[in-house]
């Protein structure tokens, strides 16, 4: 592994850890839509004073930014719906676990990236392990609505992975791309929350403001580190590596939400790590 790939790998591990923290705060929020709207708005407003001093990106970059903004809006709506109808330990693994295969396929089709047989095997093992996190327990019953929402969110994840990878490579300026991404999110998710909540928005906003402010660090970190990795290394293995957020999320759920990790999830975590090693080594 060369220095550039190692740096991209470490960045994506940091992105995975930050994503699990962001997701935990979202799950804990009483009003998840207002929470997400405020979080993205805070990050966008933090970037805006610096962005106005920078040259505007060309249209070749704006087309990716606009497409990515629409897809991220859809992802957030689906994620909120999945978390509102089911537990984090069911929705999140499916949401994240099925995304790498979709991202790898999209990168192969649209970015002309090649995938070796060994990487395909690693990708298959990793995805199977991640989906196994969501498999019902012996006495459990599948929750079809939650699974469908999570799969739809995974499709959006795969879509914005390829869009953002293409956009940041076209831009060549990671921080500018990241900043405009969050600024554009201000005019999508936050207005959605205001329109849907009506008069209830402001009481909810006062309640969610502090945790949303904390979440801005996780949001900026997870997307910024991911964009750096996508700009420096092939999309498919980087997208799969980011799904280690499932393991980090399970640990956080056990420590914070008191959800049991268990022997099955321990075995699945080992299988996941094996699959990701194959992705990096083959």
TrEMBL record:
Residues 1-20 form the signal peptide. The keyword Membrane applies. GO terms for cellular component: membrane. Gene3D superfamilies: 1.10.3730.20. Keywords: Membrane, Signal, Transmembrane, Transmembrane helix. The keyword Signal applies. Residues 9-132, 146-279 form the EamA domain. InterPro entries: EamA_dom (IPR000620), EmrE-like (IPR037185). SUPFAM superfamilies: Multidrug resistance efflux transporter EmrE. The chain crosses the membrane at residues 33-52, 64-84, 90-111, 118-135, 147-163, 175-194, 214-233, 263-281. This is Membrane protein. It comes from Maricaulis virginensis. The lineage of its organism: Bacteria, Pseudomonadati, Pseudomonadota, Alphaproteobacteria, Maricaulales.
């Amino acid at each position: 592994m060369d220095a550039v790939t190692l740096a991209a790998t470490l960045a994506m591990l940091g992105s995975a850890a930050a994503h699990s923290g962001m997701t935990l705060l979202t799950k804990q929020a009483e009003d998840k839509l207002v929470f997400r709207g405020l979080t993205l708005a805070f990050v966008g407003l933090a970037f805006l004073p610096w962005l106005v001093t920078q040259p505007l990106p060309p249209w070749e970059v704006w087309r990716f930014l606009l497409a990515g903004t629409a897809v991220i809006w859809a992802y957030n709506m689906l994620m909120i719906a999945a978390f509102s109808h089911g537990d984090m330990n069911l929705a999140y693994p499916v949401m994240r676990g099925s995304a790498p295969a979709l991202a790898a396929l999209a990168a192969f089709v649209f970015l002309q990236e090649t995938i070796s047989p060994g990487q395909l095997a690693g990708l298959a093992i990793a995805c199977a392990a991640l989906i196994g996190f969501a498999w019902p327990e012996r006495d459990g019953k599948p929750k079809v609505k939650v699974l469908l929402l999570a799969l739809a969110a995974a499709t959006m994840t795969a879509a914005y992975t390829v869009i953002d990878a293409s956009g940041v490579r076209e831009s060549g300026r990671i921080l500018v791309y990241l900043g405009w991404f969050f600024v554009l999110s201000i005019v999508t998710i936050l207005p959605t929350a205001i329109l849907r909540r009506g008069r209830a928005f402001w009481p909810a906003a006062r309640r969610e403001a502090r945790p949303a402010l904390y979440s801005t660090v996780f949001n900026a970190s997870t997307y910024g580190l991911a964009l750096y990795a996508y700009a420096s290394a092939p999309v498919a293995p980087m997208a799969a590596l980011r799904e280690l957020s499932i393991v980090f999320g399970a640990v956080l759920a056990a420590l914070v939400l008191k959800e049991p990790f268990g022997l099955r999830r321990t075995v699945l975590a080992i299988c996941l790590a094996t699959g990701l090693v194959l992705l990096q080594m083959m």
